[in-house]
Write a structure and sequence with these properties.
alpha/beta; two-stranded antiparallel sheet; Type 1 glutamine amidotransferase; glutamine amidotransferase; signal; Class_I_gatase-like; nine-stranded mixed sheet; ThuA-like
Length: 238
């Protein structure tokens, strides 16, 4: 009887593991500018989770960045974080999470975050410098075979807030560039990336500059782009 019970428990545990959902954490703490779009971005990502079979937690509490807590998540999303959001202990926990194979998604102001933490800069892929006024621009989708861009047109006209960068990593697989001739205020020239991914330090990272406006999180084209990035960060699927 005990052996039968043990077998049943093992089978139950195996079934639970097979059908267990991946879980992601949205981190949206701001120590600098606070984007109002965070308020609509969080529920939009939660809705993506419900529709695509992954669970979503959300927090502004940096104390959630412990090794024990982070290991439950397949990916962590920095949703328009700004400034110095993690202390040294929390930074170490996050580095360990990525080195253990964790996934990272940076959205918009994630590049305006943690300027004094070089490891993070390499993870997210760039550091923010400035932006002109919000305006329409033409995006060049240079890789349409990736999960976050395969649905996009080769040229994508879009209204958003377009970042210039003071530093851009050299190991990025660029997905989208912006045509600086299509708007005013660009400062990175012909190589002005807007979305990319890369393997980094044992984990996976995806970043999209898009997503400043509230309207982004009601736009199915943008949301499919963001979803693809999240799915890549969760599983490595391209």
């Amino acid at each position: 009887m005990k052996k039968l019970l043990a077998i049943c428990l093992l089978i139950g545990a195996a079934i639970t593991q097979v059908f267990a959902k991946d879980k992601v954490l949205i981190f949206c703490k701001t120590a600098g500018f606070h984007h109002n779009s965070i308020a609509v971005g969080v529920p939009a990502i939660m809705k993506l989770g419900k529709e695509n079979n992954f669970d979503v937690d959300s927090t502004t509490n940096a104390e959630k960045f412990t090794a024990e807590n982070l290991k439950q998540y397949a990916a962590v999303i920095f949703l328009s974080t700004t400034g110095d959001v993690l202390n040294d202990t929390q930074q170490t926990a996050f580095e360990q999470y990525i080195k253990a194979g964790g996934g990272f998604v940076g959205v918009h102001a994630a590049t305006d975050t943690e300027y004094d933490w070089p490891w993070y800069g390499k993870l997210v892929g760039a550091y923010f410098k400035s932006h002109p006024k919000q305006q329409e621009a033409t995006l060049q989708v240079v890789d349409r075979n990736f999960i976050a861009t395969k649905h996009l047109p080769a040229l994508w006209k879009r209204w958003d807030e377009w970042y210039n960068y003071k530093w851009i990593g050299d190991d990025l697989h660029v997905l989208i560039k912006i045509d600086e001739k299509s708007y005013t205020g660009g400062e990175n020239g012909d190589n002005h990336p807007m979305a990319w991914y890369h393997s980094f330090d044992g984990g996976r990272a995806f970043y999209t500059e898009l997503g400043h406006t509230d309207e982004s999180y009601a736009d199915p084209v943008y949301l499919k782009h963001l979803l693809g990035g999240i799915q890549y960060a969760i599983s490595g699927k391209k």
